[in-house]
């Protein structure tokens, strides 16, 4: 039997990783075990990833957020990539995917695994194309070689584009944007050139054996996800989803954990449909969605267009949200883009957890609201999703320390601050409101004395401040991670 999290769970064993997850989620370890055993949740935890602080992805747990980072042919620098990793973890990424396609991929990947407290994901097909020189030059032997190498390095989960089949390709002919998945387009090109079935589909059982050996989690790629609203929910997308359901069950037979990737660009009114359909077709395996973007008209603001869809997806049962940055469709994100994308997606994930009434999820909101009403500016900053940004915006107009005690902000000023006016009215105990009728008067407004205790909240760690709760105490500071930055570009 495979020595994986799902194998252990099925045998009745609660692993150290399950214990840690239960602590972070404020759930019973036995509940965690059962969710993993049933395939309803995954704990991506490659046995070779020593720095990992275990986490869980599943619809019965707090919604998680993934951040994509990675170099390209025009940018290849180890120091920059480690700074992106540091930024992603600091601002609350629960997992990080290294989608690098430039130089020094092995060195960068190994550095990420060595230093990352969060699970690291990859798309091995990208490295296969780089080594082969073109999509059509890829061989099944090369694919398996790269997958096994990355598993041995300690990659926790891999996107495997095995669901796009030769018979699906004609279904894309009526689309506006064709195949927008990198992996999907590579596999489609290979099948068109060779006239054969998807090689990743053909060797899927071999991949399962590699994953079982190292406890790598499948992230089954949505190669035919829609790249615009017009292509959403079409025959091609749903045909591939049916195949992903079959592959999910095949992986479970090997005691390998599975999550399934989803769209993409989807109109708001069809987001829930996508989640519900995936949950049915894939027997409840965790759904990991990119966005979805709910409109196509906002280049430069797609962290917003996608966070709207992400919040709806989280409310509908999606387990993890893949962030989108303001640079989507425009360029490679830098550190500030990573920060903005994660802020948008932490908001979406938290909003979904509040909507789903996860235990204690709203306590964070209540605590900040109370601090806001009391004009406790320092506590507001401490509780903020991004404390530095909140403090920066406040100090742009009211920078002095004396304004940290002020009962107003610069938006309304002293005279028109509604909360100050309300507080003053409630403080006037002998000033009842005017008579509503000749017979009675309303009572004076009572003082508000509520206080939320976040220390005793049942909320999961990701639904409490501060963000970035993965245990990284034993990791070196970032300035020690990259003593010899790489400054090359282009192919090896």
Tell me what portion of residues adopts beta-strand conformation: 5-15%
Q: Mind telling me the CATH class of the largest domain?
A: Alpha Beta
Q: Mean pLDDT across all residues, rounded?
A: 90
Largest sheet properties: 8 strands, parallel, barrel
Low-confidence parts: 436-440, 481-492
CATH homology superfamily of the largest domain:
Radical SAM ThiC family, central domain
How many helices? 18
Task: Write the H/E string, N to C.
Answer: HHHEEEHEHEHHEHHHEHEHEHEHHHHH
**Radius of gyration from the alpha-carbon trace, in angstroms:** 25 Å
Protein name: Phosphomethylpyrimidine synthase
EC number: 4.1.99.17
InterPro entries: ThiC (IPR037509), ThiC/Bza_core_dom (IPR038521), ThiC/BzaA/B (IPR002817)
Region (Disordered): 425-492
């Amino acid at each position: 039997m495979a020595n994986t999290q799902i194998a252990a769970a099925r045998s009745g064993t609660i692993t150290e990783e399950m214990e840690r997850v239960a602590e972070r989620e404020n759930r019973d370890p036995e509940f965690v075990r059962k969710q993993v055993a049933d395939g309803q949740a995954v704990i991506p935890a490659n046995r070779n990833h020593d720095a990992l602080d275990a986490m869980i992805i599943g619809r019965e747990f707090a919604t998680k957020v993934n951040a994509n980072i990675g170099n390209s042919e025009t940018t290849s620098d180890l120091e920059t990539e480690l700074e992106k990793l540091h930024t992603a973890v600091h601002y609350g990424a629960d997992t990080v995917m290294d989608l690098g396609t430039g130089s020094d991929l092995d060195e960068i990947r190994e550095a990420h695994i060595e230093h990352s407290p969060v699970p690291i994901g990859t798309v091995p097909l990208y490295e296969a194309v780089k080594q082969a020189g073109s999509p059509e030059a890829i061989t099944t032997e090369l694919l398996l070689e790269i997958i096994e190498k990355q598993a041995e390095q300690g990659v926790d989960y891999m996107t495997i584009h095995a669901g796009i089949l030769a018979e699906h390709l004609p279904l894309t002919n009526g689309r506006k944007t064709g195949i927008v998945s990198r992996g999907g387009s590579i596999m489609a090109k290979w099948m068109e050139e060779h006239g054969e079935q998807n090689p990743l589909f053909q060797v899927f059982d071999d991949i399962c054996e590699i994953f079982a050996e190292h406890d790598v989690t499948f992230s089954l790629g949505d190669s035919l996800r829609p790249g615009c609203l017009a292509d959403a929910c079409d025959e091609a997308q749903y045909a591939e989803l049916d195949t992903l359901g079959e592959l999910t069950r095949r992986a479970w037979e090997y005691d390998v954990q599975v999550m399934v990737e989803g769209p993409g660009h989807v109109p708001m009114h069809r987001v829930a449909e996508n989640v519900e359909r995936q949950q049915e077709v894939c027997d409840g395996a965790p759904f990991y969605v990119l966005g979805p973007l709910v409109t196509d008209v906002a280049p430069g603001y797609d962290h917003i267009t996608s966070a709207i869809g992400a919040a709806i997806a989280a409310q509908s049962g999606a387990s993890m949200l893949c962030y989108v940055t303001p640079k989507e469709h425009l360029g490679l994100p830098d550190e500030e883009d990573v920060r903005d994308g994660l802020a948008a997606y932490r908001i979406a994930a938290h909003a979904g957890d509040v909507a789903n009434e996860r235990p204690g999820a709203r306590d964070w909101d209540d605590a900040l609201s109370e601090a806001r009403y009391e004009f406790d500016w320092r506590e507001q900053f401490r509780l903020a999703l991004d404390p530095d940004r909140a403090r920066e915006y406040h100090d742009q107009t009211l920078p002095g320390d004396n304004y940290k005690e002020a009962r107003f902000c610069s938006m309304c000023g002293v005279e028109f601050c509604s909360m100050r006016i309300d507080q003053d009215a409630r403080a006037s105990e002998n000033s009842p409101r005017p008579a509503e009728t000749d017979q009675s008067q309303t009572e004076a407004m009572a003082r508000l004395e509520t206080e939320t205790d976040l220390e005793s909240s049942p909320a999961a760690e990701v639904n409490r401040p501060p963000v970035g709760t993965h245990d990284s105490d034993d990791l070196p500071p970032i300035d020690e991670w990259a003593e010899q930055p790489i400054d090359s570009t282009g192919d090896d």
